[in-house]
Design goal:
It is a single chain. With about 180 residues, the chain is mainly beta. It has two helices and 13 strands, in the order H-E-H-E-E-E-E-E-E-E-E-E-E-E-E. Strands 1, 2, 3, 4, 5, 6, 7, 8, 9, 10, 11, 12 and 13 form a 13-stranded antiparallel beta sheet that branches. A hairpin with a 4-residue loop joins strand 11 and strand 12. The chain is globular. About 25% of the residues are buried.
Length: about 180
């Protein structure tokens, strides 16, 4: 890795290869497979922008630094840092976003925020840690040590820490 890759000009915006961006957006926080016929959740060309991108083709990783933003028709994810790992066949394997993570799915009326989000593609789960909050419509999950969202089953698990973080879930009747 060259020094210019480590410390790019602060105003320079970088873009990931469209194939990797499309793989990321098609799987990260997409609605379950049964909803893929909805135009709002269908995979479409995506764009990932950041202040810098360090791609290691041998290790099949891309590290996005500074003002990271993933945009597609179904969701927007922002964070300070994002590490993407691809398989040997260029399929998304693992994503870690950290620092001021916000995930928006406006068409599903969902918003998540945390300090870290880890997406395990094979398991179809996204784990939010660091003051995670998940809002689905008027319903809100807070005060958990960890919130796990299972993308394919729309299942959510809120976990606390013994005696300190006890999950709080607010349900609004009729939603």
């Amino acid at each position: 890795m060259t020094d210019t890759m480590k410390t790019p000009h602060p105003t320079r915006r970088s873009r990931l290869v469209p194939l990797a961006a499309a793989l990321l957006s098609a799987t990260l926080m997409a609605a379950p497979a049964r909803a893929q016929t909805d135009p709002a959740t269908t995979a479409s060309p995506a764009e990932i922008t950041a202040d810098s991108v360090d791609m290691d083709f041998e290790k099949r990783t891309a590290l996005f630094r500074g003002n990271v933003q993933v945009n597609d028709r179904g969701m927007t994810l922002t964070s300070d840092l994002m590490l993407v790992q691809l398989s040997a066949t260029n399929e998304l394997k693992h994503v870690e976003a950290s620092g001021n993570v916000v995930i928006l799915q406006p068409q599903l009326n969902r918003k998540a925020s945390s300090q870290k989000a880890v997406y395990d593609v094979a398991a179809g789960k996204i784990v939010l840690t660091g003051q995670p909050i998940l809002q689905m419509g008027d319903n809100r999950m807070t005060n958990a040590a960890q919130i796990t969202y299972f993308r394919d089953s729309q299942r959510v698990i809120c976990e606390g820490t013994a005696g300190t973080d006890r999950p709080k879930i607010r349900f609004k009747p009729g939603t």
